[in-house]
Amino acid sequence: MVDEKLVDGISITRLVSSESTFNKRLDQVLAWDEASDHRVHDVVKDILTQVKQRGDEAVLEYTQRFDSLPSESMAELEMSQDRLAEALNKISPEQKQALETAAERVRSYHEKQMQSSWSYKEADGTVLGQQVIAMDRVGLYVPGGKAAYPSSVLMNAIPAKVAGVGELIMVVPTPNGVVNDLVLAAAAISGVDRVFTIGGAQAVAALAYGTDTIPAVDKIVGPGNIYVATAKREVFGTVGIDMIAGPSEILVICDGYTDPDWIAMDLFSQAEHDENAQSILVSPDKEYLAKVEESINKLLPTMERKEIIQASLKARAAFIEVADLDEAVVVSNRIAPEHLELSVENPDEMLPKIRHAGAIFMGRYTAEALGDYCAGPNHVLPTSGTARFSSPLGVYDFQKRSSIIKFSADGASEMGKVASVLARGEGLSAHARSAEYRIKDGK
Asked: By C-alpha distance, which of 258, 442, 285, 270 is closest to 344?
């Protein structure tokens, strides 16, 4: 049964796990239809084709059309390192210190993720192993205009640099020439090598295919609108991509003892992203759910982005009443949320039971917002249930691995016999004979 409670004019869905229709209704709550917009797809396909065929000329045309930038050459669309340094000096001392502190924490955390090459030698002298090396060149897409996220620069650029990526190229749109100094300052702190003021599908195309000015990259990371997401999906295979992210999500498990104002604001922190963001609260305490509802009533009018929050809560939020905290974990694992807050007395006891979540925030004091900016772990996380099989962005996403195989004469002889049997079983005689040539007795 679903009981819809009105929260200051907002209809928030209430689910009760003991009801027979719970699973069906939960599916409805979680459903997110990224409607296949054929018009968007057609526009993106045309842009990709034009940039692939005409390079810089097409990029300039689209930038002039979509961003109202009357640039005459691609050179005008590249930010120099001096300009990045200038942005770093223009921001307030408080902002600079915050960026540097966050960058230091992100760098320190991701340095722990570094993977090294390894090998071992078998008794007959055969050597097997793995060579781990960084990608040569990576492209970073950063939203521009009203949506300016310096934190995204830190979270995408720093792991790439820690991994040892040779060149990091950032693209960021500047509609009507509006430049965000915080974004450029974050690029300076993160060690971004080149910055181009282009955006949209044309920027993705330029990074994927390369132009006379913008070199082709090996992988494209970073968030963007539906045109950017569609373009990334289309160029995958030509280049690697990080992920196709859905709306932001938070799921809070609470035992009923955290200040309800805190939880309401934690739910707001995701709802304010956009109308499709999802905020879910799970608790065994029915009265506590009502208290959080009261806090939402009280706090919503004070929020700067209250219209967006209201639309998000009305469309996609849910309060879920469960029998106990063990059942709360079962529900959470089924949802596999992007952000999971364990706002309980003993989160460490609950942690081993959590199987699917992008990031897990432990205890009452660990607000998800800290993870967005300065905790250290990456805020680029799997959404829409993909935490079942995906992981946060990390250094490993900018490294690739090659197998190392070096047989000794004795090893080649012995394993040649095994390969011969298997190859002939598959009907591949050239494979078999290639291995057989190395067998010492020639048999």
From this structure: 258
